[in-house]
Amino acid sequence: xxxxxxxxxxxxxxxxxxxxxxxxxxxxxxxxxxxxxxxxxxxxxxxxxxxxxxxxxxxxxxxxxxxxxxxxxxxxxxxxxxxxxxxxxxxxxxxxxxxxxxxxxxxxxxxxxxxxxxxxxxxxxxxxxxxxxxxxxxxxxxxxxxxxxxxxxxxxxxxxxxxxxxxxxxxxxxxxxxxxxxxxxxxxxxxxxxxxxxxxxxxxxxxxxxxxxxxxxxxxxxxxxxxxxxxxxxxxxxxxxxxxxxxxxxxxxxxxxxxxxxxxxxxxxxxxxxxxxxxxxxxxxxxxxxxxxxxxxxxxxxxxxxxxxxxxxxxxxxxxxxxxxxxxxxxxxxxxxxxxxxxxxxxxxxxxxxxxxxxxxxxxxxxxxxxxxxxxxxxxxxxxxxxxxxxxxxxxxxxxxxxxxxxxxxxxxxxxxxxxxxxxxxxxxxxxxxxxxxxxxxxx
Length: 444
Ligand code: FCB
Fold this sequence. Notes:
Elements: E1 12-16, H1 19-22, H2 35-40, H3 58-72, E2 76-80, H4 83-86, H5 96-112, E3 115-121, H6 127-130, H7 139-155, E4 161-166, H8 168-177, H9 188-210, E5 217-223, E6 227-229, H10 234-257, H11 262-268, H12 279-283, E7 289-293, E8 298-300, H13 325-337, E9 343-347, H14 364-382, E10 387-393, E11 412-415, E12 420-423, H15 425-443
Parallel strand pairs: 1-2, 1-10, 2-3, 3-4, 4-5, 5-7, 6-8, 7-9, 9-10
Antiparallel strand pairs: 11-12
Bound molecules: beta-D-fucopyranose (FCB).
């Protein structure tokens, strides 16, 4: 069953989560509130009225969860740090008890030989910084640099990698563009200024972390998609090109080329962000790796109403088109446009309406989703893209942001009433898949 997919023996196989989505313990041991605590405590913001106060209670059950990972035989775990756990206000005093939690987690991972890949910011800004203007305030970027430096100083030598941001596109566009995510602002101009401050904060953090020499590879995680014109019409093609510029190039160009893409800048007009002299010198810094999160493609239609994607392979429980070949196309397009560092697929996976039946979850749809995407990934590697690892989203069912607990992305089912973990069929499949790759590793 696994025969046709063969990755390099040293390819990294992992699973991913993020702090707010799994940890719970939202006010334990001196943790300060984050914007996701504030946002989700207004039940109207979350589709099922839930919040992340308890989530998967990973803060208390991390040992069990690391044990599950060890049972799956994965090489690596990607997780994020809750900034307000280690620095309650986002500036000023550090919270030792918060750092202690991550030290214990690192100990548990080390015991099992699982490589830790940390993300510094997966959307949960300390509320203390939000009160001072959040990402709209330029100063927040400097506070992020301080936080990054402290984490690298303390943990850099214990981490395989540190990513500054997870999906700054979402922070800017869902947090400030359409109010779907914390802090719940809907203002196109603010969203663009926020995107600039996020990029600036990435650059400041990279510099600050480089100044503290450590072994960790440093980079950023971006969510990306190809943009396909719905038809061959000039209007559809122009729209597809614009979408590529506004989403992918908007974040990639500053980092790799030291400028914003012209096409997008023209489209944004007066909404374009305020950029200070020297900002691009800070933002454009060599990365040790680029993390790419891939879920779906963009389908560009200029018609009214717009044409929708054909969804030949169906859609997920999120309503997202299943489109594995988009991953191959995306990676090849990136390679064509940028001088890329090694790439990790830092997220890929799907939501499905899983239920436990006789102690089992038969998520065959997820198995075929992952399998198809791995085949697509292999095609990109065969075509010359340097991809070093793959992190399945997610280890656990968890708090899926404004969808609450209704959307299940885990390869391990979580019963939120009992916190019972049940590995789904996909988890067992992934375990066997990784073992098969490893068999080849030993033979190699
Ligand atoms: C990504 C997020 C991750 C999760 C998946 C489904 O955009 O980074 O936290 O919500 O989508």
